[in-house]
Amino acid sequence: MASIDIATVLSAVISVASSSAALAYWLERNFTELNVKIRELDARLENLSNALIQFSEILTLTLETKDIFTATEALHLKNVVRSLLPAPRSRYYTWEIYEKLKTSSIKI
User: Which residue intervals of 1-108 are DSSP H helices?
Assistant: First the structure.
């Protein structure tokens, strides 16, 4: 049997451990940045959805006030806007977000 020097084994173990630690640090830093960007994107999407819902509400009320269409037609338009919400298909657009949008559009 060949004799393996303890110094060789230790140097290999130390090399692998330091490389693993450096990789773990790099991954943690990048995943932290990615999580921050996802949170920012989520906030921007929430603001956009609120803005679209508010615009729909204002448009419906304005058109109804100007007698461009009746209260029944306004109600129908509100229902159409609610039906335009896409079904959740990703892990970021969840059923919870869908229900928030749906309840927000009911207020219109």
Answer: 6-65, 71-83, 95-106
